[in-house]
Amino acid sequence: MTQYPLTLFFDGACPICAREIALMKRLDRRRQLDFCDFSAQEYDVASRGFSTEDLATVIHARWADGNVITGVEVFRAMWEAVGLGFLATLSRLSFVEPLVLNAYAWFARNRLWLTGRSHACTGDICRSALSSRHSP
Asked: What are the mean pLDDT values of the chain's consecutive 10-residue runs (136 residues total)?
């Protein structure tokens, strides 16, 4: 059994991420979610245990009991916490799950480029996307 609250680590400087978190904050009527913006100047790696580089690669969350989840599992847990469990159920369907996993993996690799923050890209995928944009 999972223990709330679920702490979500998110990039508040990412416009898409910030919008998603704002929606989750509005929907979290039972206050089962805690939110930690790792892009904030006051983010403390020592007390949180995750480097900003790790968090920028894939979304992370930590249950109250200390268990950590990443990627699509974070979204599923978040949806269930705010009453959108049908989305989590839908995302687990055998014909939907590969699409969801691949779509999130692509987004995670390219979110800086997608949100106009390509100057902050550090991953090979982002670099290759940038070079292809500037190639003749």
From this structure: 89 90 97 94 84 88 95 97 97 98 93 70 41 35
**What is the structure's pLDDT at 49?**
84
From the options 3.30.160, 3.30.70, 1.10.3470, 3.40.30, give the CATH code of 6-91: 3.40.30
Please identify which residue in the block is written with the tokens 């100057």.
119
Comparing C-alpha atoms, which of 15, 62, 4, 13 is closest to residue 38?
A: 13
pLDDT for res 77? 97
